[in-house]
Design a protein that fits this description.
single chain; alpha/beta; Rossmann fold; six-stranded parallel β-sheet; about 375 residues
């Protein structure tokens, strides 16, 4: 079988969850189905080919001049799929072409842009494109039961059309125990070797709740903040400057280490060295950082809403992400109770065993084969 994929997220300069997941997923699928051929379409590489070493995966950069009105997605990509004589097309990032050029399976991660508190002027148009994709696709993957219920209701489609397929931890994310590697990462991100720290993935996106995390850190008792740091990565300018100014204004500038995008190679060490992962997102379709924290042995604080309790199970402290004081209280609990942290770490190690790329790939293969016949 020949399968084509819209792989723009994977070849982006800073691949996030979707882009990184495709590497792990298709690496596993390519190994299990060596006689299949996979073509990853993108708009140009921004670095090394992430599928290097997979003999049956090729990548192809395609572009179009004057890309307006979604011409790349709705014209250039379908023409390439048709020219490749694809048996199947996978649209992995919520929206697929109007006429995909082959039977289409779509992955719709979530409907977060449609939530009233997070909506933008483009949300309605985006929602219509997602609804169209849901009706055009033969099958839909989504990573959580929470997202499935939202998709079925919004798109008015049969529940049987949507397959819940949870992700697994990033294959590159392993628990780091080498003292020298941990010390090097601490130095790089401004944390003293003898200083415990709370780690989080910050963002300029409001739903990631970076401002409330900083405000909550300021409300943690000073006795618990002493000799500790809050380390947040992934914050782009101008938000980075704004959040640094906020930390200074709250009197916690010295204990906050706020950074832009972290090198992918540093994430496992940052998580492995952390006492706590703080992840009180306002909305998530899944919540991959929780699995990575479980793998690396960090105790987890996360939200009590959307998909996050589904992923966390009993292996995290759950808080109301809309209340600064709730986040602060959760941090206080975790920083003051070493026994609680140890218990959550042990629960996390067990919890993450349920999420594997082998199982994820088998569910995908079953759907692909049924759709392609």
């Amino acid at each position: 079988m020949r399968l084509c994929v819209d792989a723009r997220t994977t070849f982006a300069r800073h691949p996030r969850g979707t882009g990184k997941n495709l590497v792990d997923l298709y690496g596993e699928i390519a190994k299990v189905r060596p006689d299949w051929r996979f073509v990853m379409f993108h708009r140009g590489r921004n670095g090394k080919n992430p599928f290097e070493g997979c003999a049956n995966i090729s990548d192809q950069g395609i572009d179009i001049k004057g890309d307006r009105f979604g011409l790349w997605s709705n014209l250039r990509l379908p023409l390439a799929v048709r020219a490749a004589k694809a048996d199947l097309f996978h649209a992995p990032a919520n929206i697929g072409p109007r006429f995909p050029g082959a039977p289409m399976v779509a992955t719709i991660h979530d409907l977060i842009p449609l939530e009233p508190a997070l909506a933008t002027p483009d949300s309605a148009r985006w929602g219509e494109a997602v609804r169209r994709t849901a009706h055009k696709a033969s099958k839909i993957f989504t990573p959580s039961e929470y997202s499935k219920l939202k998709i079925v209701e919004f798109c008015a489609i049969a529940e049987s059309k949507v397959v819940v397929n949870p992700w697994a931890p990033d294959r590159k994310c392993k628990r780091i125990e080498d003292a020298a590697q941990l010390a090097a990462v601490r130095e790089k991100y401004g944390v003293a070797c003898d200083s415990p720290y709370v780690f989080g993935f910050g963002s300029d996106m409001p739903r990631k709740n970076t401002e409330k995390v900083i405000r909550a850190w300021a409300e943690v008792p000073a006795s618990l903040r002493d000799q500790r740091h809050l380390v947040l990565v992934g914050i782009r300018e101008p938000a980075l400057g704004k959040f640094r100014a906020l930390a200074e204004a709250l009197g916690v500038g010295e204990s906050c280490r706020l950074h832009g995008f972290a090198d992918e190679a540093d994430i496992a060490a940052l998580l492995s060295g952390a006492a706590v992962l703080v992840f009180p997102s306002l909305s998530e379709g899944f919540g991959l950082p929780l699995l990575d924290a479980f793998i690396c042995g960090a105790a987890v604080l996360t939200s009590d809403c959307t998909s996050l309790p589904e992923v966390a199970g009993d292996a995290a402290v759950l808080v109301d992400p809309r209340r600064t004081e709730a986040i602060a209280d959760g941090l206080r609990q975790l920083l003051s109770d070493e026994g609680l942290r140890r218990d959550l770490v042990a629960r996390g190690f067990e919890r993450v065993k349920a999420y594997t790329w082998e199982a994820c790939a088998q569910r995908v293969l079953g759907v692909f084969e049924s759709v392609a016949g």
